[in-house]
Amino acid sequence: MNILKDKLLSKISRRHMEPFIRVHASTLRTLEIGASGYYSEYFPNKVGLDIRPGPSVDVVGDAHNLPLEDESFDRVLCTEVLEHLHTPQKAIDEMYRVLKPGGELILTTRFIAPIHDSPGDYFRFTKYGLKHLLRAWEVVSIQEETTTVETFGHLLQRIAYQSDLRGGMLTKALLLLVAHATAPLSWLIKREYGRRNKLGVYPESAIMTAGYYVHARKTVKA
User: Fold this and answer.
1) Lower Cβ count inside 10 Å, N or C end of the chain?
2) What Å distances lie between residue 193 and 124, 131, 136, 205, 208, CA to CA?
3) DSSP H helical ranges for 47-193
4) Longest dimension (CA), the chain
5) Is 77 exposed, middle or buried (0-12, 13-18, 19+ CB in 10 A)?
6) Residue 26: pLDDT over 60
7) Domain limits of the chain?
8) Which CATH architecture describes the domain 2-146+208-217?
9) What is the pLDDT of residue 3?
10) Is 121 strand, coil or helix?
11) Which residues have CB under 8 Å from 222's CB, separation 6+?
12) Prediction pTM value
């Protein structure tokens, strides 16, 4: 029973995110913006920064104006923070500033998601918007978090977490069960398009992904 309960309550987004973060584990000096503490085991030489004090916070500061020296970190880890920053380009530029040449950014953010941590929830990003924000960087990869169909599961899960439902816990459990059952249905979609009209056809992948995982590198000037 406890195993089933843990499965139902496990976040779909976390299930995808942890393997991505683990792949980029590093013993190099890492700045974590939005110090959650979730991934400390993968970054033993980590400095945690957040806007307010907390258990995993080493430096209290604003991501838009980092109180840190230029080129003082080998990596920046920024998970689920970008959508909560009122001026994301300024924050991205600050991350670039504190990284050493060739230093890497590991970032995750939302595309399709409900309002959360309100009122400090400002933006949602497409992969094209992320590429624009990172135009000064070498973008190694931008990968979708979920398939289009699986995103419905992600949203159902968020409704269960963030709503009081008629039917109480029984309805909530039903939503969580359906949420975890969506992924196998992804085979139903044969092709997806970002545009299919008189201007032409533009194939796409995961047009309704829940979020994106970014790996970028600070360019080394010749």
Assistant:
1) C
2) 20, 19, 28, 7, 11
3) 88-98, 127-133, 148-162, 168-180
4) 63
5) buried
6) yes
7) 2-146+208-217, 149-202
8) 3-Layer(aba) Sandwich (3.40)
9) 45
10) coil
11) none
12) 0.93
